[in-house]
Amino acid sequence: MYRTHTCGELRLQNVNESVILSGWVQRIRKMGGMTFVDLRDRFGITQLVFDQEKNPKLFEKANRLGREWVIQCQGIVAERSNKNLHLNTGEIEIIAAELSILNESKIPPFTIEDDTDGGDDLRMEYRYIDLRRNTVRKNLELRHLIALEVRKYLSEHNFLEVETPVLIKSTPEGARDFVVPSRMNPGEFYALPQSPQLYKQLLMVAGFDRYFQIVKCFRDEDLRADRQPEFTQIDCEMSFVMQDDVLDLFEGMMIHLFKTIHHIDIHDFPRMTYADAMRLYGSDKPDLRFGMPFVELKEVVSGHQFSVFDSAEYVGGICATGCSSYTRKQIDELTEFVKRPQLGAKGLVYIKYEPDGSFKSSIDKFYNANDLETIAEEVQAKPGDLILILADEKKKAQKVLSELRLEMGTRLGLRKKDVFAPLWVVDFPLFEWDEETQRYYAMHHAFTSPKPEDIVLLSTDPGQVRANAYDMVINGVELGGGSIRIHNSELQHKIFQIMGFSEEEAQFKFGFLMDAFKYGAPPHGGLAFGLDRVVSLFAGLDSIRDCIAFPKNNAGRDMMSGAPSPIETNQLTELSLKLIDSK
Amino acid sequence: MYRTHTCGELRLQNVNESVILSGWVQRIRKMGGMTFVDLRDRFGITQLVFDQEKNPKLFEKANRLGREWVIQCQGIVAERSNKNLHLNTGEIEIIAAELSILNESKIPPFTIEDDTDGGDDLRMEYRYIDLRRNTVRKNLELRHLIALEVRKYLSEHNFLEVETPVLIKSTPEGARDFVVPSRMNPGEFYALPQSPQLYKQLLMVAGFDRYFQIVKCFRDEDLRADRQPEFTQIDCEMSFVMQDDVLDLFEGMMIHLFKTIHHIDIHDFPRMTYADAMRLYGSDKPDLRFGMPFVELKEVVSGHQFSVFDSAEYVGGICATGCSSYTRKQIDELTEFVKRPQLGAKGLVYIKYEPDGSFKSSIDKFYNANDLETIAEEVQAKPGDLILILADEKKKAQKVLSELRLEMGTRLGLRKKDVFAPLWVVDFPLFEWDEETQRYYAMHHAFTSPKPEDIVLLSTDPGQVRANAYDMVINGVELGGGSIRIHNSELQHKIFQIMGFSEEEAQFKFGFLMDAFKYGAPPHGGLAFGLDRVVSLFAGLDSIRDCIAFPKNNAGRDMMSGAPSPIETNQLTELSLKLIDSK
């Protein structure tokens, strides 16, 4: 037997018991004739004591141990004189009687501490050592717990978890597919799913009524910090539901998660239209941990010979409470912030509403105190506040103002990691127009249903059609989204037409779904959450990478195993493939 | 609102309630001035009644409905005069007041009944219709339930579910990998995992202590009825364990499953060595629902001038209780059975131990009644029994006799689907010698540890080394298997040497695992269950295909979507690949 207890288990009540522990040497301290070893496993740390006087041979053996060696130790539990109340096991120690070295260890390339001295690349290369750190392991424990609670909640609500295939048909719409050559069918390829969308809709046609799956999905896109080639979705679909049924049920799921994981009651799940979200926050995923909504000022500010405002499509402002004391330097920082190449604003207008009721602004030449007071009233500023105004083409101004709002929220400490502001954004546009390819693309996906009252617009003004689509947003992060689907094959064909698909294309890409819809498709809808994002939110992480056991870097490479890697020529030949010389 | 209740929910206590149901038209019966519609959803069937006299317009509308149309019906719950006690809802019916057609349906290509008239190919092409059948859906409900209970059991035993990557490094050992070209790394490929073996061992090195994952795995092998290119494993690994710890824990998991799923108590999990399993049943996965062990007869039967026995390496017999009455025709069938090309026996010897104590046999020429009685005693036959004897090269004879034993078990009705005989087979050989490539292959896999007492044999007689490897077998099906792993990199190198890997090969294939083992690898071991097989066993299915939502056929093709399929040339070019002309 390797152990009688884990390293996180022993307490005062175990004093005098003979125990066996196994684990890793976290730390060795030598004090006089005593050697103390902190023995670590996933469950905790227990102190082992080796006494030179009582057992000189064992003492000597202990002194030869190194960091991260794997050992087994038998001994008697004793009360510590010098208790460490930060540790669950800090009231006891083990007076060692026997010691076995199960495995030695080279000196690890970085320290196994919450704040390690290892850089990102080194941590990824030695991920198996990085994962020994509490902070990293806790994210994965949280991930396990969240997945478990999701499954519990959904199962209790009559959802069935059904595994859909990973080797599927390639449908070149949306992001780029990863493909898998088929040896048995030369020249043909499977695709890895970007989502189980078609299969979950087929399960609704099959009468499964409520489906979910926690499932890996794949996108061959150029990677950013917050993207991985493989990611995990909580994928769900329901039959015989209206939009509110879906929203209520998954809001319930999130409430359940906050309750069981964080012991927080979240009740308030406001629903905001996409139009309002854009108008008030310039974003379809506004962070509602704080207010600071946009106020459109075009009308109020026009006609003062200030050409920047007069000529702009859009003038909008936000009010930063209590920031009238901002210095020239701070204002300059904000101006630099909005002028960064990624945002590209031409400038930033400020109005300081001084505590004494006077105004100082960068537009004093054009606006007198009365004018500025009118603007202040419009944005509901009070003495002591700072008003920030941007003017530009509308879409761009909203985007920049949205970033500026978030920056001010951060500066004001209004974006706390332990505060959660959930939100449904609803009524998304059905289509987006793409200038480059001169066609409409589905904003959510091709199977999203239009709002019934907007169906008349399909023929006249598709860009104005709103969809039965919704996103769940918490703290400015889009955790998931979905829609009520089209279950009528005529309407579906109409949508394909608007997207510029020929009959043949539609048949080739989605034919089996269209066929299925002819055999009694029920009304249905659903959504998918990004599990990585949900875990990151709950763990307070900035990147999804930290909640994935073995993530890939921005070049899609696993730094530990070296994947991807060349394969042997005969493997390629078996697949009827050869490499194109890249010279 | 589409429905107030499901079609499986209403009972006598709901009588007089106004309800709304939605579902599929299972059946329409017209009797006089009444039309009865069986409305079906996942939860059950409810009868709707349309009365010509009371509501002629609605009656007419109902008469236009077709099979599998999706409808919504509002009405009042009423007690049925003609109750159907086979249905949960059979005591009530709905007196229809309103009817909406949500979707029409073409006439389905086969009937949605437990015994459908659809052939396998048609069912696979229209899988979304096939899945509407109770029998198919129930398998998937069972699958959901089993996965849920596995997760519950393992979580309660401190296992963490950790997702390992799907895009991994190709390691050309074992079965053939599916590969995925990397666009971002031209000429390089990911592989899809045949199992998360390396990653789960790395998680042990990372101190995760207890890991599991219900995970898709992939093998690009030529397919048989019971194989799919993608399949699902319950993959597990534990640290600081001996073999018995692993066996106890997973036997506990199976006991939990039988208890919660089938409400059966299974206590008896005997452990049998591989050597005994081969000796007694000629198989490493014996079906222990019945006895009928092999008896080695070489010694007893030798020296009677019967050259078939005298010259054979192995002579073995089984005793079929109560089969002395077998006719000539039945004996001939058994002889044909063992002579089939797949088995290839040269013949079958029988001895009938007649109820009156006399003998009739196919070897009367060589053996007198006394001789036959000695044989009968050896195989513990009693009057009324039939003794069947095979003689051949040992391995072959055991294989054929094993099949014959199963055939007799089936004929005797001893292989009941609701009887479960679990078993651990232990002490597998570490290596198998391959004549063709003239090298040893790991029987389980390259990371399996030898039994400590056999380590000395590694240098002298590797073929005799037994492994700390084990298989769980129930009813002759290998549900899962695993081993205690090597955690010492020197021993691991020794094993690689025996398998004929050069230092470079080993480093290229498994370098990152070998590296990891230098940083404090704990003793560890684990196993993996085939979820598809577990579900099949619990569902009493003959093929795993019936418990997979969207299986592929023997050519690896999804008959519904048509995957795999050709992709566009520019997709290939992006991947730096081109097709080899196959002509």
**Number of separate domains of chain A:** 3
- In total, the number of strands of chain A is 23
Span of the ends, CA to CA of chain A? 59 Å
Please write the CATH class name of the largest domain in chain A: Alpha Beta
Helix content of chain A: 25-40%
CATH architecture call of the largest domain in chain A: 2-Layer Sandwich
Which key phrases capture this entry?
five-stranded mixed beta barrel, Gyrase A, domain 2, 17 helices, BirA Bifunctional Protein, domain 2, 583 residues, 29% helix, alpha+beta, OB fold (Dihydrolipoamide Acetyltransferase, E2P), 3 domains, globular, homodimer
Describe the structure.
- 2 copies of one chain form a homodimer.
- By secondary structure, the first copy, chain A, is α+β, with helices and mostly antiparallel strands.
- Chain A is 29% helix and 25% strand.
- Chain A has 3 domains: 12-103, Beta Barrel (OB fold (Dihydrolipoamide Acetyltransferase, E2P)), CATH 2.40.50.140; 132-273 and 416-548, 2-Layer Sandwich (BirA Bifunctional Protein, domain 2), CATH 3.30.930.10; 290-411, GAD-like domain (Gyrase A, domain 2), CATH 3.30.1360.
- Chain A has helices at 56-63, 120-125, 127-130, 134-156, 197-205, 243-262, 274-281, 298-301, 307-311, 328-339, 369-378, 394-411, 457-460, 489-498, 503-516, 531-539, 569-574, and strands spanning 18-31, 34-41, 44-51, 70-79, 92-103, 160-161, 179-181, 189-191, 210-218, 230-239, 271-273, 295-296, 314-320, 349-353, 359-361, 386-392, 422-426, 431-434, 439-442, 469-474, 477-484, 524-530, 577-579.
- An 8-stranded mixed beta sheet of chain A has the order 6-9-10-22-21-20-17-11, with helices on both faces. A 5-stranded mixed beta barrel of chain A has the order 1-2-3-5-4.
- At the A-B interface, β1, α3, α4, β6 and β7 of A face β1, α3, α4, β6 and β7 of B.
